[in-house]
Amino acid sequence: MSVEETGSLKLFEGKQQEITRQELVERVSEHVNRILRRNLYELKLDERQTFRLLRQKEELRRYLKEAGTGNLQVKEYLISFIQEFLLNGMKMDEEMIKHTFFFSEKGSRQAAVRFDILLFLYKEQYGSGAMEKLIEEHGLLSGTENVITEEQIEHVYGVCGRKLKFIEQIELLSRKIYAYYKGLGAIDELRDMKIDGVSGGVSGKEGTYHSAWIFYHGRSVWLPFLDFEREEEMERISRNLCRYHQPGEISRKKGYLVHEMADHARVVVARPDFAENWMFFIRKLDNIPEVSLQQLVTGGHAEIPVELLKWLMKGCQVTAVTGMQGCGKTTLLTAMVGEIPEEYTIRVLELAFELHLRERYQNRNIVTFRETAGMLEHGGIGGQEALEVQKKTDGAVSIIGEVVSAKVASWMIESGQTGSLFTIFTHHAKSTRSLLLSLRNSLLKEGSFQSERIALEQVTEVVRFDVHLHMNREGQRYIERISEIVPDTESPEGYRIVELVRFDGERYVKLHTISETTRAEMVKWMTKEEKEAFFNVDLRAFCMSFFCLYLSGMTAKNGFGKRRSHRRRNSNIICRSYRSLTENRKILMRQWQKWRRHIRSHFQQNIPMHVSMVQCARSSGRMAIYWQRDIPYFREI
User: Fold this and answer.
1) Using N-to-C axis directions, what is the helix angle for 452-462 and 406-417, rounded to 10°?
2) Is 267 helix (H, G, I), strand (E, B) or coil?
């Protein structure tokens, strides 16, 4: 009888006691150590067999080092290894598995165990989308609560839970043993799901460890039935999370570490004395959907912000994507990159690799740099040095992953002034004014400027547009507004903020057009076809408003409506209000032909066919047409 079988029988004796998790983990650990310490040459096998076993031994040692780092291939290999040991080494059968910690009478009644069974069943059918399907199918987060309770899990288990087959029990037990042997404990399977992130050690009083949270569709959700049990387990998980590529030791002297995992998830780990206890934050960046702007931006008249964002990229404008954490800044920025002309090379500077644009745009010339600030004392590369190197790599467009500090803000301003055609970056500002003041203060803090006025002038000359995102309490994400920052020496602040587009709760509304100076700047970077399309965007709006104004005059003559007009003093602006009507189609068609001839003679080109008379005739509300330096544009009044 083998050593494994003897130990198995001892463990199985009596059957009155539950086989604990710790006992099973120790058995697996002993089995692994026995394999790694074994001298294969003492077995006196032939050369081919010895070489095969040596290779398996090295493979096992390598996979053990990579366990818990987010490499799913490594995880599945070790789970299969544990499963084989349970079946062949311990000779576990249907009777024995009933006495394990997971499937015993006591253990199977726990909410955490039933949650694991539900997640296992859903994973068999939906893969990494299991958690999302479980939440949506049963409405676990249908309200504004930020918690999934034990009662909800018990209810769902009563609806769709079932008794597992023996082979399913072995697989699930193997996964739980792995989680507490080399994995991430209570959140090991959750980390692999298609959710925004997972965190632990962030709630509860001292000595309690029911502190597992997930970040789901921008909402932080507490799972109180998951328990880390003790501080040593929190420390083990936290250390596992920051082992990928060995970034360095997290010590009391440096009590935090920002790193990434094998699947590019961002990890932040903190420990005492820097934090009150061991804690970790995992942000799943592989969950960013590969969608275009048209698919990403939804809501009424979504084509308005989508079209504007496209022209900002084609017109090479420095653009900030702002908003709170979890509102979708990185997702939107990634989609905007798809609208940058393909001939432009892209250079990315980040504190930690997060965007991973080359995986999505594999046929584009994209290079990402990051600072190795954690190793500066050992000759690491700082962000300023990385920016200097970036300027020498033939980059046309610069992307700053996230402006989170004063030094990164100074990099962004420098990047926007020299070294690239334009820059895109993300920021956590709450408003456009807050963005400008934050960047100004960053320049002052870094010592680049002494005067607040001059520092602010530098910022407003570089940053031209702010795309602000918002997320409500239900988790809905949308573009709240798109604003243009216009330098204005006559303004007391030295600039004007003009809202171009705003979301009113149901639909997007176009409020103003891009300023004349910025439009002239954008046109320089466009092809002939793009210039015509860009011109037709404003021409279409002008045609719509002009026809409605013309129609108001025509209908007044025919007794259908009343026309009012006035001139603003000391300006070359004419405003007319109208009330659109749909009566007398023959008259409308006749005036439509006159109107087309008038516009054609004014712009010396044909009117685009997509401007239809019916569209104009069915318009409602009030419009005004403005003339500034012979350039028309419109707005609602």
Assistant:
1) 60
2) strand
